[in-house]
Every structure is written in structure tokens, then in C-alpha cells.
Design goal:
The structure is a single chain. This protein has about 250 residues and is an all-alpha fold. It folds into two domains: about 20-160, Helix Hairpins, CATH 1.10.287.1700; about 185-240. It is about 90% helix and about 0% strand. It has helices spanning about 1-25, 25-90, 90-175, 185-235. The longest helix has about 80 residues, at about 90-175.
Length: about 250
Amino acid sequence: MFKLAKKWWKYLTAKLTGKFNENADPKVQLEQAIAEAREQHKRLKDQATAVIAGQKQAEIRLNGKMSELEKLTANARQALMMAADAEKAGDADKVTKYTSAAESIAGQLIQIEKDVESLKSMVLESTEAADQAKAAVSQNSRLLQQKIAEKSKLVSQLEQAKMQEEMNSAMEQLNETVGDDVPTLHEVEEKIQARYAKAKASSELQETSVEASVLEIEQATANVEAQSRLSELRAELGLDGASAPQVEGGETPA
């Protein structure tokens, strides 16, 4: 029963996640992804800062121990020299005192030397860790910049996709019928083209009729000119009255 409930829970989670991703605004999701990347980079920088700070503290402590070591070494030498001078002077008490002081300083030197060696190892390790942290921050910074550039590219593509979708939707609306009594754009286009073709044909017929009338007039004018020329020739030959064609009523044509 528990396994079945677990399977149903996973199924419902996947389904709800799929619905959410399907309906979510890609631009908002991009902003969320970049914000998460920035936050991750900030956390990485904070961790690197802590590592580098630890390395700096180790260096400061090492430098302090080195200074202390130098000072104790100088004091130990001075105590030995003073003990030697007291021995030359035959002052046994001072010899004992300075020798005891030198021994005490030597004990401190041994402990300080151990601390220095330990701090040297710590500084080396912390320096290596700091270098790795710096490299990680630098690499993550490059990745973040790449993500930001990719985000700008994706936002531009998203805007282009939205514009194309709006254009496609507008074109579909132009080609769709609004109702049963409303024609499509294609039907209106065919109707307009048919009327244009009919008007064009009528215009061409009218032009043909006018051209025929003009041609008839030109032919009549040519016939009149020809008859006039023949009349002139008959007159020159003296045939005007003898062979002139007769018309109804017995009159001679002018």
C-alpha cells in the first residue's frame, strides 16, 4: 500500500510539474534561473572569501611566531653571553641565573619552532585552498556571464517567437469565416477579380467598336476622294456628260 501511494505521489508531482512548466512564462523562468545563478555565485564568493581569510590569518600568525622566534633566539644568545661574562668575572650566582634564563628561553624556542612548523604547513594548505577557491570563483563568474548572454539571446528568440505567433494568428483569423453568412477573404478576392475581368472585357469591346467606326469613316472618306478624282479625270477627257453614271430620277450625280 505504501509503495502504491508513493508511486501515485510521484505521478501527481510529475503531472503538476509538467502543467506548471507548460503554463509558466518562459521569460519569468529565465529571470528565475539567472537569479538563482547569481545567488549561487554569491554563496561561492562568500565561501571563497572565508577560505582566503583563513589563509591570511594563518600567514599573520606565522609572521607573528617568526618574529617571536627571532626575539627569543636573540634573548637566548644574550643570556648565554651574559652567563659567559659572569663566569669570567667569577660571579657564580649570575652564571647560574643567566644559565637558567637561557635554558628557559631555549624551552620556549623549542615550542615556538614547533608552532612555526605547524603554521607553515597550515599556510601551505590554506594557500592551496585559497588558490582553488579563487579559480572556482573565476570559473563560475565566466559561467554566469555566459548564462546572462544566453539569457539575452533566449529572450530575443522568445520575443521573435511571440511576434511570429501573433502574425500566424492574425493570418488564420483573416482566412477563417466569421459566420455562415460571411464570406472568406478568398471568396471576396475571387468575386472582385471576376468583376474586374468583366469590366476589362467590356472596355475592350467598346474600344473595338470605336475603332471599327473610325475605320468605316476613314474608308468613306477615301471613297469620296476617289470619286472626286475620277470626276476630274472625266472632265479632262471630255467624258463628263457622256459616261457619267446615272442615278434614279435621271439626274447626273454632282
